[in-house]
Specification:
By secondary structure, this protein is an alpha+beta fold. 35% of the residues lie in helices and 35% in strands. The chain contains twelve helices and 18 strands. The protein starts with a helix and ends with a helix.
Amino acid sequence: MNSYSESKKERKPNIIWNFFSSVKLTIVLLIILAIASIIGTIIPQREGAMQFAKGLSPDLFRLFMSLDLFDMYHSLWFRLLIACLTLNLIICSINRFPGKLRQFRISPKPNRKKPFENLPPQQAFLKRGQIKDNSNKIYQFLQGHYKRVTKKEKADKYYFYGEKGRRSLFGVYIIHLSVIIILFGALAGSFFGFEAYVNILEGERINTVNLRKGMTPRKLAFDVRCDKFILDFYDNGMPKEYKSQLSFYINGKKTAKRTLLVNHPVQFMGVTFYQASYGKRAGKKVFLRIAQNAGKDEITKLAVELGKLIQLPGSDAQFKAIDVKTDFMRMGPAVLISIQPNKGKETRLWVFKNQKTLKGQFPGLFDKFPKLNPSIFKPYTFFLDRLESKYYTGLQVNKDPGVYIVWAGCFLMVAGFIITFFTSHRRIWVRIVKEKPGVKISVAGTSAKNSVGLKRELEHLTNNLKGLFT
């Protein structure tokens, strides 16, 4: 009783295996993927999602966020969908492969009668000569044009069998394998790749980028430096072309140099850089004028480096520029000065480039807020001539380790389609029967598909065999 129960238990079908081996499941998953892809096309993803989200109600926005519809292709449910389709294809292929393998290995008998039933008249002809001589000629011809040619003699009859395109039986499995490889590549890119951005000031060197998702920093395995940013303009002032000259460093050693243009990305160690934007940012120098006694005494011009202490002319005090703003409080360029006398407290003041204009626009502002008064540290008055400005290059930084896997899958898929749709497994039989005053030669065949192509091949083979005896 126990042994019967155990054997019955062993024969019990695996529910999970049966579920994933279903072709219906494949169709359902493909439909869901198609719908998801349509949704991903309609709903802007990532950067483009912000403008779209402004038009949504709060409840709908929360629903979209909970379903990750603004970054759908990196969502957990989309990855699970890809994983289920991959598993489904693998199990379907494993289930059906043994049958195809048996079909591949089977070699039909040459003396089968069924292929010659209801044979069209044009696939048989009479020839003079001895049956044995004719059979030798046909056997040699078939060996030159077909695979696995076999011969059998039976009661004054000779039978021949040959075939071609036997490997086309596995074309569909090559396509299955290519889809699985593509899906693996997509998952590899989703899990191990990233999309980020970084702004690099001209002359600056960085090794960290900011991920688009979550805005978290990610360290690269190398350093990248913007050696130079080049910008060309049209006569009307519109930008014509902008490009970045980049250098790449590994362990402090310069190993590569690339020129990056719009629509011409560069790659280094599997990371792709795209020229995305550019802009200007304040540099590390400010150009000041310092007057004493309201300008009655000599005016000193200085190029001041941020953070560097400088002796105040004619005084034992020192000062330094500690911060710069290209548009401070929407009043234009400004620099924050820290004055440190030998005795007394530190004095800080903001110096604006458009000081005279601002006084006219905002009467009494600089008297009300001493920190904005450039003459607060007597007897000196500070003037800002200009800020050093440098271009920065805005780069989109992507890494997708699955892209080469996907390309391999695509090439394999093309090969699979060629094998599946442009080749077929054709089996050919030739029979020689003794008939007065010579022999009768009949040609028959079967094909898994492309019956029109088989018909043409049988006609061509019949004509070639006729030609052997002319």
